[in-house]
Amino acid sequence: MGVRKIHSGVWLLGIVSMSMDVSSEMIHSLLPLYLVAVMGVGAGAVGLLEGVAESTVLVVKMFSGAISDRLGKRKTPVLAGYSLAALAKPLFPLAGSFNTIVAARIIDRIGKGIRGAPRDALIADLVSSEQRGAAYGLRQSLDTVGALAGPLLASLLMRKFDGNFRMVFWVAVAPAFLSVLTLALFVREPPGPVNEGSSRPRLRWSELQYYPKMFWLVVGVGALFTLSRFSEAFLILRAGSLGIDRNDVPLVMVVMNAVYAASAYPAGRLSDRINRRTLLAIGAGVLIVADLFLAQAKGVPMLMTGVGLWGLHMGLTQGLFAALVADHAPSERRGTAFGLFSLVSGVAMFLASVIAGQLWDRAGAPSTFYAGAGFAAMAFFLLASIRSPKN
After folding, report:
1. What is the pLDDT of residue 387?
2. Are 150 and 232 in contact (CB under 8 A)?
């Protein structure tokens, strides 16, 4: 399917995500270095913050997805989530202490968690099952274009403002509010509620019986991938540990997101034609190689090779997991399904980032990436052992 044939709502949601990601990545591509170099925070504390923040996103998705199923509406929680994230952005330049940064980061991530599952469910509502891989790939590619532009802008503005972190953080506020405005004015969900009356699912334990075994297998594999792919803050810290100038550190995320953006849509289209498990296994293999390069890096060439491979892994896997959840979840419980997937991944993300931070502080940077390669290898062998039909 040609990219121009994808529903306009998917394009608009991708543009909304892109604008918010420009804002978020302008801040997040500098934040780890700002915390360590300016505020004097250790890598262990950064790992803990990232673990709490990113797992918050994934846990909150559980409830927002269930609420969107219960309401029969997707746009309302999506708009609420983007609005909360936008309101959190000014707290970063205003922060005078690490505690304020922690609060801003968590509020921002709660906003992301609120919008994530309903947005993914809305995309599934907008397109046919034959178009899901391409639709999620397109949304992910546009999102990643924002994640590419954000660090690039941050690097340019750091030079313009003579290394003034706070000025860059202030500029980052504008695209966040533009994202909310675009969503409020232009995005429309399909006519009519998703579910009718008593058929709307409730948030209770008995609901778990409605999800098939293949859905839970997707959840388990997703958790393993999350354990192997801790917070991207450690890519930034790795660049800093190799002596890269702090004005250039955001370029690490530019490289990663450039490869991510370029590969996400083609991977999504390909997954509509071949076994998605095969692509996930390839993605796990790519992550193993990426972690090994990052662990052994002595300079910029090996670092950037590892970062680029990390981005390729993201492009091969992230849209696929969304498509697999949509494939194996009942349509009337799709929002909750994305939430359940995110809940388990959130616990894994917290553990992965805390472990990564502790390994970094106690055994050095290479040990963090060797551990990631180990978890990725476990995911690879699990995928290789599964015998199932196409997708």
Report:
1. 61
2. no
Contact between residue 240 and residue 297 where contact means Cβ atoms under 8 Å apart: no
Query: How do the residues of the chain divide into helix, strand and coil, expressed in percent and rounded to 5?
Result: 80, 0, 20
Residues 120, 57: Cα–Cα separation, whole Å = 14
φ, ψ of residue 230 in degrees (nearest 5): -65, -175
Q: What domains lie within the chain, and their CATH numbers?
A: 8-187+211-385 (1.20.1250.20)
Half-sphere exposure of 29 (CA within 13 A, CB side): 33
Cα–Cα dist 88/106, whole Å? 9
Only one residue has tokens 């859905």, namely 215
Check residue 390 and give its pLDDT: 45
pLDDT at 389: 47
Task: Please tell me the predicted confidence (pLDDT) of residue 278.
Answer: 82
Q: How many CA atoms lie within 13 A of 390 on its CB side?
A: 5
Cβ atoms within 10 Å, residue 63? 18
Residues of the chain with pLDDT under 70: 1-4, 55, 58, 62, 65-66, 72, 191-208, 210, 332, 386-391
Residue 331 contacts residue 127 (beta carbons within 8 Å): no
**C-alpha dihedral over 336, 341, 343, 349, to 10 degrees?**
-160
Integer Cα distance of 139 and 260 in angstroms = 12
pTM beyond 0.90: the answer is: no
Give dist(CA 177, CA 314) in Å, integer: 27
**What does the alpha-carbon distance between residue 31 and residue 246 come to, in Å, rounded to a whole number?**
11
Closest CA to 354 of 11, 20, 52: 52
